[in-house]
Design brief:
globular; D-Maltodextrin-Binding Protein, domain 2; alpha/beta; 6-stranded mixed β-sheet; 15 helices; 14 strands; about 45% helix
Length: about 350
């Protein structure tokens, strides 16, 4: 029986708001970057999506050390994590965030449309403000008892799928689009047949968590399901932690997932941490940071660093792109808005 799990946004927002208010503002009365002679520690808040917890724990430590050495001042980065769509909505509703590092550009665009982020944020940082990429793979139990090799195996009778909810999870949107592209490619671009395919696939989803990390927990920790449709980094880290229990299956086609980053301009200006927030996101593109990104299971955008992780990633996988769907605005209108194709196939 299908089970849709709705999670709550982490309570860390409450702490983040108070820390940012008392630390960032006091430290920076003399400028927009939170720096002044003899000032207190700067605090910035990074609101991110589910599977980046470990990545930003490592990166924040690196950045805090770099910032202290460069500026002679301490900085602390507060983290918050949840389903990407839910995180975006929480920022719009007032949650403290100086920067956002979310699963897809559309979620940041929603914050922009709410007036909190300046237009053209996508061009503020390199590579469309996407310092790392990922893709979508399958995580199965060791030995692959259901013999799952590609998307078509997921619609077979008796296959139980764990997959997050596209209404709250950015990763789930990437999952859906990868499945849709596979269906088109194997049905002469017939959209009715593609719709029938994804309807059968979601009929086999037994638990639909609100975020990608929750879905991983359901599959890995709670032992439910035969296959997890997963972020590549989640699958890599699960196999690294439980090498005798899980293995990765790479489908014949997947999607180039591009998580996006942006300064929440209104909040950063209020907290007087604009320059520090900008440096925090720019530093993600440095070689040291890119190595941490690769070690954490994400694909570095630095080609030299990516090459050093060629044994970790399948660099030959056939990847479609969001541009193949007309961009995120078009994809959301067609697939994920209320009453669009996802609602039609899941609730119909």
């Amino acid at each position: 029986m299908k089970k849709r799990v709705l999670g709550l946004v982490l309570a860390i927002f409450i702490g983040a708001a108070s820390v940012t208010g008392c630390s960032g503002n006091q430290a920076s009365s003399s400028g927009s970057d939170g720096k002044s002679s003899g000032s207190e520690k700067i605090t910035i808040t990074n609101v991110s999506y589910d599977p980046t917890r470990e990545l930003y724990q490592k990166y924040n430590e690196l950045f805090e050390k770099h910032y202290k050495e460069k500026h002679g001042q301490e900085i602390e980065v507060v983290q918050s994590h949840g389903g990407s769509g839910k995180q975006a909505r929480s920022v719009i509703e007032g949650a403290s965030a100086d920067v956002v590092t979310l699963a897809l550009a559309h979620d940041i665009t929603l914050i922009e449309e709410a007036g909190l982020i300046e237009k053209d944020w996508l061009q503020e940082f390199e590579l469309d403000s996407s310092p790392y990429t990922s893709t979508i793979v399958f995580l199965v139990r060791k030995g692959n008892p259901k013999n799952i090799k590609d998307w078509n195996d997921l619609i077979k009778d008796g296959v139980e799928i764990i997959n997050p909810d596209p209404k709250s999870s950015g990763g789930a949107c990437w999952n859906f689009l990868a499945a849709w592209q596979y269906a088109l490619n194997n049905n002469n671009n017939d959209e009715e047949k593609a719709k029938d395919f994804v309807k059968k696939l979601y009929a086999n989803v037994t638990v639909m968590d609100s975020g990608a990390r929750g879905a991983t927990t359901t599959f890995v920790e709670n032992g439910q399901g035969d296959v997890l449709i997963a972020w590549e980094n989640e699958a890599i880290n699960s196999v690294a932690e439980y090498p005798d229990d899980y293995e990765i299956v790479t489908p014949s086609i997947s999607i180039l997932a591009q998580p996006s980053v942006a300064i929440v301009d209104t909040n950063a200006e209020k907290d007087k941490v604009v320059d520090a927030s900008k440096e925090y996101l720019e530093y993600l593109y440095t070689e040291d940071a890119q190595k941490i990104i690769g070690e954490s299971g994400y694909r570095p955008t630095n080609e030299k660093v990516l090459e050093s992780f060629k044994d970790k990633f399948d660099l030959n996988i056939n990847l479609c792109k969001i541009d193949d769907f007309g961009g995120w605005d078009a994809a959301y209108e067609k697939f994920f808005n209320d009453g669009a194709i996802f609602d039609e196939i899941y609730e119909g």
